[in-house]
Amino acid sequence: MEKPTVALVYQAVQALYHDPDPAGKERASVWLGELQRSMYAWELADQLLQLKQDVESCYFAAQTMKMKIQMSFFELPPETHIALRDSLLSHIQSLKDLSPIIVTQLALAIADLALQMASWKGCVHTLIEKYSNDVSSMTFLIEILTVLPEEVHSRSLRIGANRRTEIIEDLAYYSSTVVTLLMTCVEKSGSNEKMLIKVFRCLGSWFNLGVLDSNFMANNQLLMVLFQVLQRDETSTNLHEAASDCVCSALYAIENVDTHMPLAQQLFQGVLTLETAYHMAVAREDLDKVLNYCRIFTELCETFLETTVRSPGQGMGDLRTLELLLICAGHPQYEVVEISFNFWYRLGENLYKTNDPALHGIFRPYIQRLLHGLARHCQLDPDHEGIPEDTDDFGEFRMRVSDLVKDVIFLVGSMECFSQLYSTLKEGNPPWEVTEAVLFIMAAIAKSVDPENNPTLTEVLEQVVLLPETVHIAVRYTSIELVGEMSEVVDRNPRFLDPVLNYLMKGLREKTLASVAAKAIHNICSVCRDHMAQHFQGLLDIARALDSFALTTEAAVGLLKGTALVLARLPLEKIAECLSDLCAVQVMALKKLLSQDPRNGKAADPTVWLDRLAVIFRHTNPIVENGQTHPCQKVIQEIWPVLSETLNTHQADNRIVERCCRCLRFAVRCVGKGSASLLQPLVTQALCMPTFQLLEQTNGLRNHPDTVDDLFRLATRFVQRSPITLLSSGIIVHIIQCAIAATTLDHRDANCSVMKFVRDLIHTGVSNDHEDDFELRKQLIGQAMGQHGQQLVTQLMHTCCFCLPPYTLPDVAEVLWEIMVFDRPTFCRWLENALKGLPKETSGGAVTVTHKQLTDFHKQVTSAEECKQVCWAIREFTRLFR
């Protein structure tokens, strides 16, 4: 792009906001995006801010400045940094009254500059000294002081651990000065609400960074102001939210209670005074405030969790904190109790680990009251029609209740709770919505009740399958879920199998109950595999007529999974024929699609059938003794031509190629090592097409992570089953190149599959499994590493320093470990070269990594005696670049 004039940029901004034609807006957006990526953006943004024509152009310019400093700071030579700082400070002062969003963008730009500009020492001190005596500058000064701590851990800045440590120490040093400034602001502005909100936001930001001195804060007036605002009934919604956020940040900051004693006591006492204010908010039906109080009470409980478990009822282990949460659980709106779920999970986890019956006894009544409240919250509206929705907000809430109940039920006792719930149904005659909610909670805990000789469980099962069809459809739906969860009981009492299957078949034939019934049948098949073998013909009939039932895709696949699990338990001689029958429907459908003329030049989509075949292959895993022919081999051999033709027909469609790859992968896994010769042509065909398509497209790997995932899982299966076949083929070079390119993908599954492939590939040359081909494998891996080793190590180091999130690092460590085990001396050289290529300082002049840190890291990795030492070293080292 050539350098545009300011007038042209202004015109484009006007078009972006005011052009009535959407195409015009889009053109302006693309052009402005290109401008922001260019070198000219610095100067043009500066000029627009000086012109101060209107809010839109100034906002665009301020946002551009922030983006350039965040993403492209390296473009500026160091001698321009001071001029840029002075220019930004001048802009924020002259534009402070134009619009708050512009002030925020410029404040972010200044904060990001301060974090990266190593020559700007003591920026907090400079700013306070320069602006604190001018009342009119106070709004933007506080804004800068708010965003500065927030940006310290910004992922887009990547200032590195060395610089970050230096900054945090600097901010801690000036933190008391900032708090004093904030208190002065409050005193000067009196009850100015906007200023109070800014002050609380700023204070919260410094609490979040964890740099405030807790002794200094414990005796600070600001803390009193915070609680006064929260106690006052007339506090506005916005101010209430800001004060609540600030208290939550303070509580979070003192999570290590013992090292923050004076502040911890002040906050503890302060929060306990808010109970009256909570009741007032409930009385006024002010849900926003109620939610804020519940957040504060929950944060209080989270912070003092260990104290409460260590010394319940004493000091700051006061159980009034749990009472506050149970008061919130009594609120009619389920959104209120939902806030506290994470605390109850953590409490359950803590108590489970301590495993002290006396301690469990103290907390049991609280959990019982919680469960009682949750059962009430799970009730559908009495006028609800149809089945319970599980995708809306309330459906998701019920699923979270189900998970929570499973996690804390051990404190109350599964059996005791199950029996109590059942007796409320047996003895009373509750309305349908109460019955449904009770069945829902029973379904959540059914699996944790011991099924051995349990008359209550068998009685429940007997009664449920006798439910008349006249009861509310939601009750039938949840009772089917309960039956599915009780499959262990059916397995122990096979006399129930027929009545249970009859009950579920009734559901399967009804449109609204079909999917939940299919899921229950799948559960029964998974648990009662041996008993279900006698019903295999019935399952096969269902599978053949799958599309005549009103099933979701997931439920249909689940039924096939259940059928395949039972199929694997049939006598070996019957498996081939039955598998052939089970696959026939899907194969016929694929053949039919292939024989059709393409509509509008596009062949019909075969993914449904490919997914169904994949699930059958995945779960048909019979026990085959050594020397026996795998019963599935013949069937899969017959299906090959159809899959091959499907691949050819759809080779331009990544989504379908990806589904073919999945199908092949599970077929390879199903028939095992005996399949090498049979599989090679088709797997090579599958690997070639997507690999080349992906590599040739711009951003191909990033845009199709699922294809990458399946492609490398398939390649890994091949490495595990028949490494020589793959290593000897011409395609291996392309696969390794594709893998090296794909190591940068920030996608959990795809990245994991790529790393596993590379690790397993190298491992075949490391593990001497006493098979005849070990020396040949070692030689072939040696050739591949000679060709790609340096590139791979360099790319992995670059990737884990600049592209990947920390959770992927153990996978990277495993790959580096395998390379090192394969050839340690060469790896030492490769790693040294890779480290030499890393940047040693940031564009702002801060040291990223010292020579000592580089040599220490090299030594830690190359002298490691186990993989986890490599992982620790990488984790510490990559922090220097984040």
From TrEMBL:
Main function: Importin, which transports target proteins into the nucleus. Specifically mediates the nuclear import of splicing factor serine/arginine (SR) proteins, such as RBM4, SFRS1 and SFRS2, by recognizing phosphorylated SR domains. Also mediates the nuclear import of serine/arginine (SR) protein CPSF6, independently of CPSF6 phosphorylation. The nuclear import process is regulated by the small GTPase Ran that partitions between cytoplasm and nucleus in the predominantly GDP- and GTP-bound form, respectively.
Subcellular location: Cytoplasm; Nucleus envelope
The Importin N-terminal domain, residue ranges: 28-94
Subunit structure: Interacts with (GTP-bound) Ran. Interacts with (phosphorylated) SFRS1 and SFRS2; leading to their nuclear import. Interacts with NUP62. Interacts with RBM4. Interacts with CPSF6, promoting its nuclear import.
InterPro entries reported in the protein's UniProt record: ARM-like (IPR011989), ARM-type_fold (IPR016024), Exportin-1/Importin-b-like (IPR013598), Importin-beta_N (IPR001494), Importin_beta-like_NTR (IPR051345), TPR_TNPO3_IPO13_2nd (IPR057941), TPR_TNPO3_IPO13_3rd (IPR057942), TPR_TNPO3_IPO13_4th (IPR058537)
Signal peptide (from-to): none
Acetylation among keywords: yes
Coiled coil: none
Classification via Pfam families: IBN_N (PF03810), TPR_TNPO3_IPO13_2nd (PF24138), TPR_TNPO3_IPO13_3rd (PF24140), TPR_TNPO3_IPO13_4th (PF24139), Xpo1 (PF08389)
Primary gene name: TNPO3
Phylogenetic classification of the source organism: Eukaryota, Metazoa, Chordata, Craniata, Vertebrata
Protein name: Transportin-3
Annotated Gene3D superfamilies: Leucine-rich Repeat Variant
Gene Ontology CC entries for this record: cytoplasm; nuclear envelope
GO MF annotations in UniProt: small GTPase binding
Keyword annotations from UniProtKB, A to Z: Acetylation, Cytoplasm, Nucleus, Phosphoprotein, Protein transport, Transport
GO biological process: protein import into nucleus
Organism annotation: Oncorhynchus tshawytscha
